[in-house]
Amino acid sequence: MIACSVNSFETAAYDRVASKDDFLSRVVDKKLVLVKSVNAGAVGSVLYINSDGTISGALWPSPVSGTWEWQSGKYCSEVVVGDMRLPRECKNAWVSG
């Protein structure tokens, strides 16, 4: 299990994933746990960034699906959460663990 962030918050506890090879070895086909503090609690999700270019999992309580690629040193994805399609995004990837 790996904690993963695609944002730059709290980066002191995370290592930036700077190359596609690093992303493939540290993130792809692993169980990714993302936790965000909300008010007095936390909202979590479990995602799989799959080697076939798909994304699967759940952002509690909604299912998540989509596609990903590595482009210009960033993790790019198109994701559907529940019934909501999110716009394509390219972000830096960070890992801890």
Notes on the protein architecture:
- With 97 residues, the protein is mainly β.
- Helix content is 7%, strand content 59%.
- It is built from one helix and ten strands, in the order ββαββββββββ.
- The protein has one helix at 20-26, and strands spanning 2-5, 15-17, 31-38, 41-49, 54-59, 62-71, 74-81, 84-85, 89-91, 93-96.
- Strands 1, 2, 3, 4, 5, 6, 7, 8, 9 and 10 form a ten-stranded mixed beta sheet that branches.
- A hairpin with a 2-residue loop joins strand 6 and strand 7.
- The longest helix has 7 residues, at 20-26.
- It is globular, with a radius of gyration of 13 Å.
- It starts with a strand and ends with a strand.
Question: Could you write a compact summary of the structure shown?
Answer:
With 97 residues, this protein is mainly beta. Helices cover 7% and strands 59% of the residues.
Topology:
Blueprint lengths: L1 E4 L9 E3 L2 H7 L4 E8 L2 E9 L4 E6 L2 E10 L2 E8 L2 E2 L3 E3 L1 E4 L1
Which short descriptors sum up this protein?
mainly beta, 10 strands, ten-stranded mixed sheet, 7% helix
The termini sit apart by: 8 Å
- Which class of secondary structure composition applies to the elements? mainly beta
Strand content: over 45%
Percent range of helical residues? under 10%
